[in-house]
Amino acid sequence: MLLPEMSxxxxxxxxxAALWVGACKDAEPRATSFTxxxxxxxxxxxxxxxxxxxxxxxVARETLGRNCGExxxxxSATALRGALAVFDLSEPDWSAAMSNAQLRExxxxxxxxxxxxxxxxxxxxxxxxxxxxxxxxELVTLEAARRP
Length: 148
Description:
The chain is mainly α. Helices cover about 60% and strands about 5% of the residues.
């Protein structure tokens, strides 16, 4: 009489499986908790973001250096104290002191045809490619996402 015993076990297993599938189908997905300094992202994602952020900062430093470095590079004879208070391209993490609003304002200014030169009395042409603007915008987005 092994067959009836196996049938009962099989029927019980099928019932348990059906109940489990039914319970899981209606359950809300559970949030997974990760420890990270990058806005709660998993550590691997945070590392990739950190690398990308470093790349974007380097490209943005070059772009800003060409267009804004005259006033925003500490140690330069043409550097302006007020400009250095916003950001200083000679600093390794030049964007750290900037607020999200200041980063957005820098992105806006890079889209202008002219920018200030040697203070506010003169202007100079701004020259930024579409690719540089896209990278700067990505930097602004990643910086905002990582900040409290």
